[in-house]
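As the work plan foresaw, our protein records have gained a C-alpha cell line. A representative record is set out beneath this paragraph:
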Amino acid sequence: MAGIIVFFIGALVASQIKSADAAGIPYQMFANLITVLAAFAAIMFAAPKGIIKKSIYAILSSALLVVLWGLPSHFGYDPTCLLFRGTLDVACWTADFQPKIRIFSTLGQPDWMAAYLAALIPLIVALLINLSSGGKLVFNKSFSFLKNHNFLIATALFVFFLMSYLALIYTQAKSAIPAIWVVIPLLLIWYFWFYIKPKFDKKKLTLDFKIAILIFLAVGVATFFAGQPFGQLQKFTLDGIKAMLAKPSPAKTVAKPTTPAPVKIAPAAGELGGTDSGIIRLLVWRGAIDIWKNNPVFGSGLETFAYAYYQYRPAAHNMTSEWKYLYNKAHNDYLNYLSTTGTVGIATYLLMIGSFLFFSLRFIFKKRHKLSSKDLLIVALLAGYGTILLTNFFGFSVVMINLLFYLFPAFV
C-alpha cells in the first residue's frame, strides 16, 4: 500500500512540473525517476526472503502498478495524460491510440500488455490457492478471520487477479485472452486432479477447492460483463444479449436510384477502422517464409527483417491500411527467427524451449503422488511460460516478455 501511494502521489507531483521551452534540466524526468525508485524501495521493503521469492514479489508488484495505471484509461481517465499534460482524460493520444477501446498502460501497445498479464495471471492464481490450502485460512462466526493476516493477503490477491483479468479483457487481444482461457482451466484441473481428488469429500469441501471454483466463476462472470474480442462469441456476453433483445427500428422506404451505384468491397476492418490485423499478419507471415526459402540455412541475418521483408513483401500488403508501415518483425516470433536466423536458428530456439518443457514436466510427473505447494508454483510458471509461447506465435516478444521468457525457466 505504501508503494502504491508513493507511486501515484509522486506521479501527481511530477505532472505539475513543467518546462516552458522543454529545454534545460529535465526536472519532470528526475521527479518520475525518484518516484519509481521510492515506490520500488517501499514495495521491496516488505518482500520475503530468498532471491526467487523477492524476484516474483517484485514482478507481481510491478504488474499491480501497471494494472492500476492502465485500468482507468478504459473509462476515459488516463494517468499518462495527467502526467504529461495535466488533464485526467485521454485527449493526449492520437487516433491510432485509443485506450477507451484497447488499453495499453505503460507497455505502449495492447497486445504487449496482454501478453505480459497473461504470463503472470497463472502465478497469481497459484499463490492464491496455496494461501488457501493447508488450513492457513480459517472462517468462523465471530468474524475473527477479518484480523487474520493470511485472509487479508488472500483477499488482496483475489482482487489483484480480478483486476488483472479485467485489464487483459480491456486490451481486446485476440491471442492472450484465448491463451488464458486455455491455461487457467488446465491449471485448475491439474490442481483438482493431483491435490484435491485424493482427499475429496462431498460433505466437507476444502477451502482451496472453493477458491478454485471461485476463480473459475470469476473468469466467466468478468467475461460476461466486460465482453471479449471475438464477434462470434459476443452473443454470450451482456452487451450481446442486450443487442439481441433490442427491438429493430422500423425500416424506412427509400426510393431506388435509377443508376446503381458501384459497389466497393472493403477489406475486413479492425478495432480502430483499419484492415483486420489477422489479414495483415497472414501477409507478413507469407513474406517471412519467402525470406527463409531464399536464405534457408542462416536466414537473412540477425535483426534484418525490416530490410529483408521489402525484398519479398506480397503485393497484397499494399492494399491494406498499413501499406506504408515499416515492419521490423514478422509478428510471429517463430517465423521471425526462421527468416532471420534460418533453419539453424529456429532449430536451436525450439530445442531450448522443448528441452525446458520436457525436463520440467518429467520432474513434475515423477512427483505427482507427493506434490507440494512449491510444485504448484512450478506448474504455474510453466503455465505462464505456455502463454508466452502462444502469444509469441501471433505477435513478437518485447523486452518485458523476453525477460519473463528467460526468468521463468530460471525460477523453475
